[in-house]
Design goal:
By secondary structure, the chain is α+β, with helices and mostly antiparallel strands. It is built from nine helices and 19 strands. The strands form four sheets. The chain has a six-stranded mixed beta sheet, sandwiched between helices. A five-stranded antiparallel beta sheet has the order 13-12-11-14-19. The protein is globular and about 75 Å long. The two termini are 26 Å apart.
Length: 359
């Protein structure tokens, strides 16, 4: 049985539907990440789980108990916000212990809980400092400690790393992953960072305009996007997506052809997608081949991202810069395996291969 269940959840602000029938289930100890563009409803969904927003229809259940009408304090949930929201006049230890003190937890028990959490977060040496004496990463650890010390059933994180610099985000992401693996607490996490989503999640929910676009493991979301939106949204650099004509049950790629799924051989046009890392200039037998001319190249660290002109449109692909790398204006053949091609319906934008596999 699912530990956290969200059933047909709706949220309206006046006449505006912000969440439109969301259905999600996460197992105990799971790590659910909510992703989507700004305004898609992910933070609103998180706030309804926390009880900070009332729902317009539907049901939220935690460990089998409906919590729709429960006050946030009765839901056994702890939340970590984007802003650290620490009390500036209190020490780190006092900030972590404040909630327990308000609940009347005896001081010896508070002190032990603070010491345990500080050790887990590796901030024991900071307990006597004030927030103004801490770095951004240290403040975020204190905010996490304040949530961890409660030992709740569910942790909610609302873009907790967005205020940190790139290196610190990587460090904190690793820390959150380590904490989840050791504590095995159920987590719901909102982020706009795809790398955070892919590395932290056991399940990802992709939202758009208040609708759930796809729900699955990171592997499923990345390798089998349910529709054109998910295909273009998940992945960095983004998937190449091209609208191409179809003739006699085949997608036309210049002089190359790629067969349509049997149930969709009547299509006259489809969207074809291929990820940049699946395109190569070391073309092998069986690859779909295209002539290409380099338009631009971007150094991405270990790789170059090459933008190339082809008979079917502009494509991007990753190229390791060992040895020589094609220059702007240089012509070269490129190719990709038919197994790496994604096809989407021209009108519904659904993944044609997934539709066939579900029959």
């Amino acid at each position: 049985m699912a530990f956290l269940e969200i059933n047909n959840l709706h949220k309206r602000f006046g006449a505006v539907d912000v969440l439109k029938g969301i259905d999600l289930q996460i197992e105990e100890g799971g790590f659910l990440v909510l992703v989507g563009p700004s305004g898609c409803g992910k933070s609103t969904l998180l706030n309804t789980i926390a009880g900070l927003e009332t729902i317009s229809a539907g049901e939220i259940r935690i460990n089998g108990r409906a919590v729709n009408d429960l006050h946030p304090s009765q839901r056994d949930i702890a939340m970590v916000f984007q802003s650290y929201a620490l009390y500036p006049n209190m020490s780190v230890a006092q900030n972590i212990a404040f909630g327990m003190e308000m609940r009347g937890v005896p001081k010896p028990e508070r002190d032990k809980a603070v010491a345990d959490v500080a050790k887990t977060l590796q901030i024991s040496h900071l307990l006597d400092r004030k927030p103004s004496q801490l770095s951004g990463g240290q403040r975020q650890r204190v905010a996490m400690g304040r949530a961890l010390v409660r030992n709740p059933q569910v942790f909610l994180f609302d873009e907790p790393l967005s205020n940190l610099d790139a290196k610190l985000r990587v460090d904190m992401r690793t820390e959150i992953k380590r904490l989840h693996q050791s504590m095995k607490t159920t987590i719901v996490y909102v982020t706009h960072d795809q790398i955070e989503a892919m590395t932290l999640a056991t399940k990802i929910a992709v939202l758009r305009d208040g609708l759930l676009q796809q729900f699955g493991t990171p592997h499923e979301i990345y390798n089998n996007p349910a529709n054109l939106f998910v295909a273009g949204f998940i992945g960095s650099p983004a998937m190449n997506l091209l609208s191409l004509p179809c003739v006699d049950g085949n997608v036309q790629l210049g002089e190359q052809r790629h067969p349509l799924p049997p149930r969709h051989r009547d299509q006259t046009r489809v969207w074809l997608g291929v990820r940049p890392e699946h395109i190569t200039d070391r073309v092998e037998e069986g690859h779909l081949r295209l002539p290409a001319t380099v338009l631009q190249r971007e150094l991405m660290g270990a790789d170059y991202l090459l933008h190339v002109s082809t008979p079917i449109g502009t494509l991007r692909f990753s190229r390791r810069h060992r040895g020589t790398v094609p220059e702007k204006g240089e012509s070269l053949p490129i190719g990709f395996s038919p197994a790496d091609v994604h096809l989407f319906h021209a009108e519904t934008q659904h993944n044609l291969l997934m539709e066939c596999n579900h029959v």
